[in-house]
Amino acid sequence: MTCRIAYICGVQGLSLVPLLRGITEPEDLMVFASQSAFNEWEGDTQNIEPIECAEMLRAALVTFRPDIILVMTYLSKLDVSLSKSSKYGMVNIHPSLLPEYRGGAPIFYALKNGEEHVGVTYHFMTEVFDQGDIIEQASIKVTPTDCASSVWLKVIKKIFAGLPKIIENRSQWTSMARKQDENIATSIGFPSLGERSLSKLKTVSENLSIIRACGRATGARLSLEGHIVFVTEASVAPANAALNESPESWIENESTLLFKVLDGWLEINAAKLDGITISSWRFLMEALAHGA
Fold first, then answer.
1. Beta strand ranges found along the chain (DSSP E)
2. Could you tell me the fold of the domain covering 204-289?
């Protein structure tokens, strides 16, 4: 594919670099990564540069002369006039079915709200985040066993399948584009600490939705007697009258940790402590007892 591509991305957007390298010649791809993304990149750094400031990015784009500019998970605001450096425009790849879930964490909120579908939207960038005309969309089914981690993999798979065709049709982007329907638009930000935390003041269902929305890679924050663990898997604890009457907020033995919430008990099946996955609650309790 003969197309000069400038790709601007954050950490999660690094997932697309191998795809773009596979569909372009080395000299036709330039990746501009946020500083944090550049620091995390462990592959070949050929044609990958950190974005040090807006002026340097603009100058680099003018020098590179891309046909298209693609953007994904870059969290800082970009001047839309950068699109003038390209032939066909600057397009953002957003992991939702816009205009639903405009903003920084669409997968988190979609799962927290129990949505049965998420998606990928390719849209022109404007001065306002995620409100540009839509070029193409693809829907992704969410199953009851999905969490943020598995949904993100589905999103990447969908992009790998669809992006080459999107790029191939670049000369038709303007004619393909359609306005977003403001009547169904929703906007979200980034989840607060409270939104990412389990709570005894929330129901079993609400807490399970938070775990699902945080995903296995991160986990939902849980405070146990002042100690913080990140829960990656949990389930509804079996009905037990003795537990329901217990004054304790949590009960543990060698293999099970139960956490009391508003309408019952959660059984914590897996969690992380200091980045280490906990396989036995006896080990966790010993670590907490020694001030880990």
1. 5-9, 29-33, 48-50, 68-72, 90-94, 102-103, 117-124, 134-141, 187-188, 220-224, 227-236, 250-252, 257-261, 264-273, 276-278
2. Methionyl-tRNA Fmet Formyltransferase; Chain A, domain 2 (3.10.25)
Task: Tally the C-alpha atoms within 13 A of residue 58's C-alpha that lie toward its C-beta.
Answer: 9
The residue behind tokens 């993100």 is 152
Indicate the fold that domain 5-188 takes in CATH: Rossmann fold (3.40.50)
Other CB atoms within 10 A of residue 118 CB: 24
Q: What is the pTM of this model?
A: 0.91
Note whether 134 and 180 are within 8 A (CB): yes
pLDDT band at 166 (very low <50, low <70, confident <90, very high): very high
Q: With a cut of 60, say whether residue 227 has pLDDT above it.
A: yes
Phi, psi of 250 (to 5 degrees): -155, 150
